[in-house]
Amino acid sequence: MRFAVRRTIFYLITAWAAVTINFLIPRLMPGDPVTALMGRMQGRIDSNAEQSIRVLFGLDTESSVWQQYVDYWGLLLRGDLGLSFTFFPTPVADIVQQALPWTVGLVGIATIIAFTLGTLVGTAIGWRRGTWADSLLPITTFFSAVPYFWLGLIAITVFSVTLGWFPSSGSYDRGLVPTWSWEFVGSVIYYGFLPALTVVLSSVAGWILGMRNMMVTVSSEDYVTVAHAKGLPERAVTVGYAARNAILPQVSSFALSLGFVVGGTLIMEMVFSYQGIGYTLFQAVNTQDYPLMQGCFLVITLAVLGANIIADFVYAALDPRTRQEG
Amino acid sequence: MTASTLHVPTAGPGAGDPVLEIENLSVDYGYTDDATHVLRDVSLTLHRGEVLGLAGESGCGKSTLAYAAMRLLPPPGLITSGSVHFTDRDGTRTDVLRQSDAELRASRWQDMSVVFQGAMNSLNPVFRIGRQIADGILAHRPRTTRKEALEQAAGLLEMVGINADRARDYPHQLSGGMRQRVMIAMALALDPQVLIMDEPTTALDVVMQRQIVEEIADLRERLGFSVVFITHDVSLLIEIADRIAIMYAGDVVEDARAQDVYRRPRHPYSSALLHSFPPLRGERRELTGIPGAPPDMQRMPPGCPFAPRCAHTTDVCREVRPALGPTALADRGEQEAARRVACHLHDAAAGRGGGSLPAGLAR
Questions:
Q1: ipTM over 0.90
Q2: If I label B11, which of A181, A267, B25, B194 is the partner at 20 to 30 A Cα–Cα?
């Protein structure tokens, strides 16, 4: 129990630090959004309007950084991330809320599939090393060595352009109304298949390799020999003794990769024009949309933190040595 | 180790029937033609209720012999020839090397169990120790419930002097000595007939070593299992073992009662080995050590493997490998006749009452 309390306090402090840095960084950047907007419009906005835009963006009041910081926290706790400049006047929270489920759904499921598949295959290859199954390794490693955008483009060329099996972009049939109907869900799965496939293909090798190597290492541990000597069934030795210990490092990398699910799929979303958070962040950076950027960063930061919390607790549940009892 | 009060009941050779017979066992490391021959035609018999000590320098094949007898050799270890016969309490004799995988799995831990060298790594770090003892019981006694098995595990821990409450501990919560006791408790869970102990006290300090050895001696007296005790600590062996087999470069070079090996070594290597550590009791003597180093197992000389380091080498030693046989002094009585030695000096002196033997080997 003390373990849980200590970890919770630790993560609260980390979250506070992350939010504070997220607040400070845009303020340290040179230039300001109004000048940037004026510059981008290249004279199409009358220079006299500059002051009105400032008022509109709430940049007219000369408040201290401390006051801004306090206000920022107040707004944040109410879920108010400000208004986006690009999609003015849509609140940032709404944009993030729309984009997030797509990314989390698609990349999250793809990551879980890659992890499960990779770990199972890695266990099998690692336990029976030196068989034909080892030849799987170079094949999967090839797919992860290939640059992701190229893999995505090849997948589009082959499966949507040449064969016409899957759509090349988008996240669902635009003719449908987003509801929880079978038709719509089916359409989402159909559109998401190709991007998910490429994500799984490019990441599964890492999981296989990691698990295989750990299995090989753990298989030569004394306690595995003891388990054999005890006459335990082969399955019990493989699962309970070898894989059970080999999976520990996998679990921590899995939790970390879950954290990056939210932010790390920019290229996939660009290649497949998928309306996720990576694509949104890309747009925000292109248009110097500070509130949106800040909102995206905040969500990504919190996601990584959340994944770390899960990793910590799962790891403690799996490995008694990491529990700091008493 | 000052083992002056250590009492080990003596069950001399022949007191029990053979329980484990290793015959002409050869083991290679590697699958190709240039594989290293680690064991060459090794024969060894363990009798019921006996403590057999297996001694020799590092890399002489002691552990390999024990692992091979249990078919636990890690790859690329390969048994190339020989047989290992296990005789059950009811007299049935099985060849361990010809058992099917299922038969082998069923007999493991019930017939022969093992305490491994590294107490630190022999326990699965993620399971409670009670569960680790219990899963061996459950695998072999399917009618036992989980609760009963855990109760038995707690009882076994009590038996080796660990509080039963510790059954819910994880291995990292125990000290090295306690882990070794847990391993002994685990090895005795199914009342095995043969217990192989591979340097069970190596990682422990001398106080703990002594406690563990006393524990084993005491348990053996109560439960009546046979022990193969592997160590390079010859002085410890003399205290605990009934019989000692000295190994050198993959061969058993001498096999005799512990006290006989200690007082009247017959092989030059045994004699030299005994002169490389100070005696615990008895008269003081000069320590000599053995010149040279053990042979490279990949390039074994054709003759006696000990010939390059032996003080009594003759021409025949460099050409012919000696076989394990009776000593030259076999006519001295029954005890002497039961001894075995692999040395050309004895072959040459046989029938002449050992007259040509060096004085140190004919005491």
A1: no
A2: B25
Measured between CB atoms, does B201 come within 8 Å of chain A? no
Best A226, A228, A248, A318 residue to mutate vs chain B (most B CBs within 10 Å): A226
Does B113 sit within 8 Å of A240, measured CB to CB? no
Sheet holding B340-341, edge to edge: B112-115, B194-198, B226-230, B51-55, B243-248, B251-257, B340-341
Give the angle subtended at the CA of A12 by the CAs of A8 and A18, to the nearest 5°: 140
Show Cβ contacts of residue B122 under 8 Å, excluding neighbours closer than 6 positions.
Answer: A222, A223, A226, B115, B116, B179, B183
pLDDT of the residue at B19: 92
pLDDT digits (tens, 9 = 90+) for A103-126: 888 888 899 999 999 999 999 888
Rounded to the nearest angstrom, the minimum Cα separation between A321 and chain B is 7
| pLDDT value, residue B7 | 45
Angle at B49 between CA B48 and CA B50, to 5 degrees: 95
Average pLDDT over residues B353-360: 72
Q: What is the residue type of B180?
A: Q
A173 interfacial to chain B (CB closer than 8 Å): no
- Rounded to 5°, the CA angle A262-A263-A268 comes to 95
The pLDDT score that the predictor gives to residue B150 is: 93
B57: its two tokens: 């320098």
Model pLDDT, residue A144? 83
Q: If we measure between CA atoms, which residue out of A266, A260, A226 comes closest to residue A242?
A: A226
- Residue B288's alpha-carbon distances to B50, B291, B359, in angstroms, are 32, 9, 16
Domain ranges of chain A: 2-77, 93-319
Residues in chain B: 363
Nearest CA of chain B to the CA of A108: how many Å? Answer: 29
The neighbouring-strand residues paired with B198 are: B230
Decide: helix, strand or coil at residue B46.
Answer: strand
Q: Does A314 touch chain B (CB under 8 A)?
A: no
Pick A245's closest partner by Cβ from B104, B110, B126: B126
In chain B the domains, ranked by start, together with CATH numbers, are 18-241 (3.40.50.300), 265-361 (no CATH)
Residue A193 CA, chain-centre distance (Å), reads 18
Dist. CA B163–CA B182, nearest whole Å: 11
Q: What is the mean pLDDT of residues A220-235?
A: 88
Pick the range with the lowest mean pLDDT from A5-9, A175-179, B133-137, B184-188. A175-179
